[in-house]
Amino acid sequence: MSDxxxxxxxxxxxxxxxxxxxxAGPGLVWVHxxxxxxxxxxxxxxxxxxRSFADRGIVVVSVDYSLAPFPRVWAAAAxxxxxxxxxxxxxxxxxxxxxxxxxxxxxxxxxxxxGGASAGGNLATGAALRLSHGAxxxxxxxxxxxxxxxxxxxxxxxxxRAALDADPEADTFGPDPVRxxxxxxxxxxxxxxxxxAVPGTASAADLARFPATIMINDEVDELRxxxxxxxxxxxxxxxxxDISTEPGTRHGHLxxxxxxxxxASIDRFAARIxxxxxxxxxxx
Length: 284
What we know:
Blueprint: E1 2-8, E2 11-18, E3 27-31, H1 47-55, E4 59-64, H2 72-78, H3 90-104, E5 112-117, H4 119-133, E6 142-145, H5 158-166, H6 175-186, E7 213-220, H7 224-236, E8 241-250, H8 260-274, H9 278-281
Parallel strand pairs: 3-4, 3-5, 5-6, 6-7, 7-8
Antiparallel strand pairs: 1-2, 2-4
């Protein structure tokens, strides 16, 4: 493991590189979550996840992107001081820059995938979409864990609503918290966003060159509505999609590596990433 400071699009950008002892070829640029305003490279969703992928032969570049301000309502609830931060498109630009750097770094022969968890899944998706609209490079695979992709998401079906009602501690991503999170990230009204900030609004035409995608959502998590809606859009666009729900999980299960569900998700993600390698594709 080593840290490097890149010449990022908005100033110095730190990334952490995890080099496997037995590299299998592919690489992954990974983006932790935290509501766009929290999280760090040391959290399990960043460090444990990256180490787990490296243990399976995948080179990982974990991105220490710039955070949005801590929302006042969050700071008050946590009895924490408010702090300064940045707004869109800073973090999105940094994730795209980190992916471009990784592809050209020589750290792994590739192919390179791009992924993230929760708000990091949004940042990874927005960057992948922007790359797909330009000259690339386009990720070989989008790797999304319980992503938030809509600032205004649909209503849970009766089954999910019942599960959330039965587990109030898991019921944290209703309309108001999601709106606050996105307004804080965008630094303004929701109506002022573009498709790279809120990629769940992408049309089938927007998604025509989006990479093959694996997405694992949490079972008792209102953000599952966002992930599943984006999955439907990907299918409409003809994108190769592997979408599933990890049983028995609340939002953010990759931050709980002591639970078997976290390892189960890593295993499925890693299998798909490893399958992007031409050598692995040739195997029966």
